[in-house]
From TrEMBL:
Gene: cntn5
UniProt keyword terms in alphabetical order: Cell adhesion, Cell membrane, Disulfide bond, Glycoprotein, GPI-anchor, Immunoglobulin domain, Lipoprotein, Membrane, Repeat, Signal
Record flagged with keyword Glycoprotein: yes
Membrane topology: Lipid-anchor; GPI-anchor
Protein's name according to its UniProt entry: Contactin-5
A GO MF label: cell-cell adhesion mediator activity
Pfam families reported in the protein's UniProt record: fn3, I-set, Ig_3
GO biological process: axon guidance; brain development
Length: 804
């Protein structure tokens, strides 16, 4: 078929409706030759970033769709022959959701109700109102406009259950609330009480009855109507306010409330007392951090009134229980309160207050106390200049905490240091009036950060914030490697090792090592460069090296600035060779049809000491390469070979090995595995049960020609549902078992031979009865005359009970 322009064969609908939050898939499938390319666009904006293209861009998938994702979408198919497009509209709708709802309301008759409910949704929801399940209609007193409900001049009949319904064509939501209309005679919730005031203070006598509708209020004093004046005012909330009270204002005040349903009165007795006075001591405190002080608060007050005290620190109540035992409240007299401060801290400085309070008035007296202590942290440290061993630093003074700063200490930290360390400075010492110093004797090419600590006559304060991290400049290395040593390696190799120089002492980039060595008794040094700063080993190979040749060795350092010092000269030996002799006296013993134990003696001591042994085993008439090889762990001189074939002759040899290589193998020896275990299981199992005693017998197993002779039998017993088994061996084909009471037991029998265990017999299940409790978990065996068919062997078995 020739080329043709694209044609859209399948596409999404002209209008797609989707609920907010779902995943929308818009699909366009087009045919054409060449295969057309599908592209998408949104006509009024950009395609959402969360959108994904699927199936070779034929599907536009928009997850968690939102209102702003609405709009017209176009898919376009194009190839070299032309293009075509389809456009559809995606419309996102939402069910109504509440923004604000109505709540239960209580109002007095005659008042106005104003409820408002608001909801969002697309399309925008409309509102309806119900009362007691019936539609609510607009009346002269009832207004309903766009979610608002207003009822004027409430009546008792307006009480009921109201519902606001917000709905669009996709759903509706409801908000319910109860309206209660109150109608009651005045009533006071409090009984007559006494009010105590002090001379010169303002007094408020409250009158707050509960009534519906609101009652009319009147006041009288000592049975005479109270007349408002400049000093006596009746406030809008019915409170009687007395300005600048005096002793003449004492008396009995009555508030009367009445409406159409009745009336009520509240009596308040007003007493006017002399005000309190507070004295504080000491006015000036001279103690330092770590010392103690007692602050005293004494009051003069009307003796008929009880006084209470409250201590404050910086306008907050002082809780002695939460201050770590530093504060103790002491009151020895009713008119005096003391506060002891022990082991004063810097944070204890501030504004102390003593509040004395009676039923008549409350008086607060305050005074400031400053406690000298160690200085605060200096300002941030700035590195002004850096060299290979020095750093010029500056900082700003911190607070001295009421004691002049005497000295500063400069501290430094690097990635390899143990925390912050005090460094030497120029000048030394740095006095308290200075704001700069030079740190000296630093290591070259090391990253440092610095901080400063201030000291005054009281003590040493907290450190400053640390400076930015800076690196000192490069210098020639000054520290040589240590612990230079050698050994190991392969034949004809000289291996030289050392401890690497830490980054702190490398002094610059391009750090490396110079390895120098010479054979003992020679003069010229052979030097090799090792360019990695992390290297710890150098290997030199020379085919002329005899094993264990002594060399003089030293290791030096260098970097981009030049060569540094060498280590002390040490003697190192070249590598030894592989083992030269095979193991001797190799022996092998067949353990079973699949196991052979091999033993040998190590070769004579000498160069090429074995670090382990490798045992090779292969079948007779096969090549050694087709066999198996197994290595020992260390210098063991025995090995158990497993997984072998039964009744088969094997050849076995042993060789030593070390990190240089393998030595010669011993001469092969021949050994045959034992015949296989009998393949037939014990048959014709018969058993007789008498109570908890079970007599069990079976037909003897006859071994085949290629199988090991039977030397006995193994009886396995376990309680059903448990993995643990009891094992009994017998040379005969019958046993008597005594089983514990109350359980189901599974019994099976296997033949035993030199080649191993044979196949298992069919299983026997025995159910024992309850009644006799087991006393022991031990297994007892009693040999009986072999001539008895059912009593060849008697086994008394008590299986211990295990928790289920």
């Amino acid at each position: 078929m020739g080329e043709y322009e694209p044609k859209i064969e399948a596409h999404f609908p002209q209008t797609v409706l989707a609920a907010k939050g779902v995943t929308v898939r818009l699909e366009c499938f087009a045919l054409g030759n060449p295969v057309p390319t599908i592209t998408w666009r949104k006509m009024s904006g950009n395609i959402p970033k969360k959108a994904r293209l699927r199936k070779s861009q034929a599907v536009l998938e928009i997850p968690n769709i939102q209102l702003e994702d609405s709009g017209s979408y176009e898919c376009k198919a194009e190839n070299t022959r032309g293009g075509t497009a389809f456009r559809g509209h995606l419309q996102v709708y939402t069910l109504p959701q509440w923004i604000s709802m109505i709540n239960d309301t209580q109002l007095d008759s005659g008042e106005q109700l104003h409820w408002e409910c608001r909801a969002t949704g697309k399309p925008r929801p409309t509102y309806r109102w119900l009362r007691n399940g019936e539609p609510l209609n607009s009346q002269s007193r009832v207004e309903m406009v766009n979610g608002e409900l207003i009822i004027h001049r409430l009546q008792q009949a307006d009480s009921g259950m109201y519902q606001c319904i917000a709905e669009n064509k996709y759903g509706a939501i409801y908000s319910s609330a109860e309206l209660k209309i109150l109608a009651s005679a005045p009533m006071f919730s409090t009984n007559p009480f006494r009010l105590i005031a002090t001379v010169g203070k303002d007094v408020s006598l409250e009158c707050r009855p509960r009534a519906s509708p609101k009652p009319r209020i009147s006041w009288r004093k000592n049975d005479r109507r109270v007349q408002p004046s400049r000093r006596i005012m009746l406030l809008r909330n019915n409170t009687l306010r007395i300005i600048n009270s005096s002793r003449s204002d004492e008396g009995s005040y009555v508030c009367r409330a009445e409406n159409q349903f009745g009336s009520a009165e509240l009596t308040t007795v007003l007493l006017v007392k002399e005000p309190m006075r507070v004295e504080l001591s000491p006015i000036r405190v001279e103690v330092t951090v770590g010392e103690s002080v007692v602050l005293s608060c004494k009051v003069t007050h009307d003796p008929s009134l009880d006084v209470s005290f409250l201590w404050l620190l910086n306008n907050q109540p002082l809780n002695t229980q939460q201050e770590g035992g530093h504060f103790e409240y002491i009151q020895t007299q009713s008119s005096t309160a003391d506060m002891m401060i022990r082991s004063i801290l810097l944070k204890h400085a501030g504004k102390y207050g003593c509040r004395a309070q009676t039923r008549a008035d409350s008086v607060l007296a305050e005074w400031w106390h400053l406690f000298p202590g160690p200085p605060g942290p200096p300002g941030v440290v700035i590195v002004e200049e850096i060299t290979d061993t020095t750093a010029t630093l500056s900082w700003s003074h911190g607070v001295d905490n009421h004691s002049p700063i005497t000295t500063y200490n400069v501290q430094a930290r690097s990635p390899v240091s143990l925390g912050w360390q005090t460094v030497k400075t120029d000048p030394e010492p740095v006095t308290g009036n200075m704001e700069s110093a030079m740190a000296v004797d630093l290591n070259p090419w090391v990253e440092y950060e610095f901080r400063v600590v201030a000291t005054n006559g009281i003590g040493t304060g907290d450190p400053s914030a640390s400076s930015r991290v800076v690196r000192t400049k490069e210098a020639v290395p000054s520290v040589a490697p240590v612990n230079v040593r050698g050994g190991n390696g392969r034949r004809h190799e000289l291996v030289i090792s050392w401890e690497p120089v830490s980054e702190e002492f490398q002094n610059g980039e391009g750090f490396g090592y110079i390895v120098a060595f010479r054979a003992n008794g020679t003069r010229g040094w052979k030097e090799k460069m090792v360019t990695s700063a992390d290297s710890t080993t150098y290997k030199y190979r020379d085919e002329t090296f005899p094993p264990l040749t002594p060399f003089e060795v030293r290791v030096g350092v260098y970097n981009n600035k030049g060569d540094g010092p060498f280590s002390e000269v040490v003697t190192v030996f070249s590598a030894e060779g592989e083992p030269r002799e095979p193991p001797s006296e190799v022996q092998a013993f067949a353990i079973s049809s699949s196991e052979i134990k091999v033993m040998w003696k190590p070769p004579n001591p000498g160069p090429g000491r074995p670090q382990g042994y490798e045992v090779s085993s292969w079948k007779d008439m096969e090549q050694e390469e087709m066999g198996k090889k197994k290595r020992t762990k260390g210098n063991e001189t025995t090995m158990l070979l497993t997984g072998l074939d039964g009744n088969t002759q094997y050849l076995i040899s042993v060789k030593g090995f070390n990190n240089v290589g393998q030595g010669p193998a011993s001469s092969p020896i021949k050994i045959s595995t034992k015949k296989n275990a009998p393949s037939l299981p014990p048959g014709n199992l018969m058993w007789i049960q008498e109570g908890n005693n079970v007599s069990l017998s079976w037909d003897p197993v006859k071994a085949r020609d290629n199988e090991s002779e039977v030397i006995g039998y193994k009886v396995l017993l376990r309680q059903e549902g448990r993995g643990h088994s009891q094992v009994m061996r017998t040379p005969n084909s019958a046993v008597v078992l005594t089983l514990p009471e109350g359980g189901t037991y599974i019994i099976e029998v296997r033949a035993v031979s030199e080649g191993g265990e044979g196949a298992a017999s069919t299983q026997v299940r025995v159910l024992t009865s309850s009644g006799v409790r087991a006393k022991s978990g031990q297994l007892s065996v009693q040999n009986l005359p072999p001539g008895l068919a059912w009593t060849a062997l008697f086994l008394s078995l008590v299986v211990p009970s295990f928790p289920l």
